[in-house]
Design a protein that fits this description.
It is a single chain. The chain is 34% helix and 23% strand. It is an alpha+beta fold and 456 residues long. Among the domains are: 110 residues, Pdz3 Domain (Roll); 150 residues, 2-enoyl-CoA Hydratase, Chain A, domain 1 (Alpha-Beta Complex), CATH 3.90.226.10; 40 residues, no CATH class. α4 runs antiparallel to α5, α10 packs parallel to α14 and α11 packs across α13. The N terminus is likely disordered.
């Protein structure tokens, strides 16, 4: 009878752990942890920002902990938590595909729920159409598994998020509030827009294909339309695919008609800096483009060996001694030669009053694009701070199909000003609040139209 009861309990809970494979041996688990720790120590550009002693202590703790994990999900979660200590948006640990396919964020059988961070609250901003009356847009999750939502985010979600900026940590902490493997159950307390408090129990299941309200806007690689009074709207949604350069050239005849221009980078998570630069050269009369300045760590083992014996006075007198001392402390860097890019463009330019829309999802190569705009007086940035992370990640494999990446390059403004960890700030800040979600409005675009209409 006891065995039967246990079986029924497992079936009713979705038998969570039975769905996740446990493929790794203890030695493989230690190897994967050690591989990540080693690559960080040798290649992570921001190693100087972390407490090395605390980092090594955590590694030693994890040697025992990873061996006792019940399955591949728990193992990789520990690696993600370890990675999050580095606080970098280009340094991440990824699940094997077999595990990732079993993880859900928004699907709960008859419910599809999408959350946004609005003033630090977990607010439902999209819901499957059949449930929009039961859980209206604006419904707040105030408690998760008997913990206040803010505390649950702090203790159960944020420790696994690798990000350079506080605003992204807060955004992702809420958008990933209900993430978990299929079968994971959440006991929620929710507050409807009318103030009514209700309880709701949700269990992750496979994807529900039902449409959501409000519907997601379909975005192409490049979107173009005309707004009022000769204002062209150009949304550059990714620099990952070089095809966007060709798509841009196809739109040039139309763009040349624009008296004013709005460029939307809010959905651009980056890609290749050179792809963005090919487009930006049309938006300036300059022949020189000033992009980001870069450096990476330089590891010469002999310098590091010498550095152990270097006295302070020696490092002040001799260049080799200074290099040895810095190598010993893992602070010896290769500064890439800085040369502004020269534009040889023969085509007509589009230098008109321009607004660039930016936000928390404007990242990486899209931020590099913004560096080019820094000295362009006809360009104004409107929106919120950007993602605050760029660089060159080094990719490598982890056991049984998992993977990781480590940021190897530091990028700054040409004068050395840092934006990684802060984001590139708008000239005019506009933030979407709850009323904008309720009315399905875009206040950033509205402000841009209002602003540019008054520009000559």
């Amino acid at each position: 009878m006891k065995n039967l009861v246990l079986l029924l309990i497992l079936l009713n809970t979705g038998n969570l752990f039975a769905q996740i494979p446990n493929t790794l041996s203890k030695s493989e688990k230690v190897y994967g942890l050690s591989k990540f720790w080693q690559e960080v120590n040798y290649n992570f550009i921001y190693l100087y920002k972390i407490d090395r002693k605390a980092w090594d202590i955590e590694y030693k703790k994890l040697i025992a902990q990873v061996q006792e994990t019940n399955n591949d999900y728990d193992y990789y979660r520990l690696l993600q938590k370890f990675c999050a200590l580095l606080k970098d948006g280009h340094t991440n640990v990824y699940f094997p595909k077999e595990v990732q396919d079993k993880i859900q964020r928004t699907n709960f059988g008859e419910y599809r729920i999408f959350l946004s961070n609005i003033d630090g609250k977990a607010i439902i901003t999209r819901i499957n159409s059949s449930k929009k009356r039961e859980l209206p847009i604006g419904t707040e999750i105030i408690q998760v598994n008997k913990l206040k939502t803010s505390l649950y985010v702090k203790e159960k979600v944020i420790p696994y998020i690798s990000s350079s900026t506080d605003h992204i940590i807060q955004d992702w902490g809420i958008s990933r509030l209900l993430e978990g493997p299929i079968g994971t159950t959440f006991d929620l307390e929710i507050k409807l827009p009318n103030g009514e408090i209700k309880s709701l129990k949700l269990t992750h299941s496979k994807s529900n294909k039902e449409s959501v309200y409000p519907a997601f806007q379909e975005r192409e690689l490049l979107d173009f339309t005309w707004l009022e009074k000769d204002v062209a709207y150009l949304s550059l949604n990714s620099f990952s695919d070089p095809q966007i350069d060709s798509l841009f050239l196809e739109k040039l005849p139309e763009l040349y008609k624009a008296k004013k221009l709005i460029i939307d980078l809010r959905y651009n998570g980056g890609g290749r800096t050179d792809v963005g630069m090919e487009i930006f050269q049309y938006f300036t009369n300059d022949t020189i483009l000033y992009g980001s300045k870069s450096e990476s760590r330089l590891h010469i083992p002999t310098y590091k060996a010498w550095g152990m014996w270097i006295k302070e006075k020696d490092s002040l007198e001799f260049d080799w001694a200074k290099q040895a001392d810095l190598s010993y402390r893992n602070e010896f860097y290769h500064k890439f030669p800085y040369e502004p890019d020269t534009i040889h463009l023969k085509s007509k330019r589009i230098v008109v009053p321009t607004v660039i829309l930016i936000g928390h999802n404007t990242a990486s190569a899209a931020e590099d694009f913004l560096i080019f705009t820094d000295n362009q007086k006809h360009i104004t940035k409107i929106g919120e701070a950007t993602f605050g992370s760029t660089g060159q990640p080094m990719l490598f494999d982890l056991p049984n199909g998992g993977s990781a990446r480590i940021c190897t390059k530091k990028d700054t403004y040409p004068n050395g000003k840092e934006f990684v960890g802060y984001g590139i700030l708008p000239d005019i800040k506009v933030k979407k609040n709850l009323s904008h979600y309720l009315e399905n409005k875009d206040p950033v675009l509205e402000k841009a139209i209002e602003f540019i209409q008054n520009k000559e």
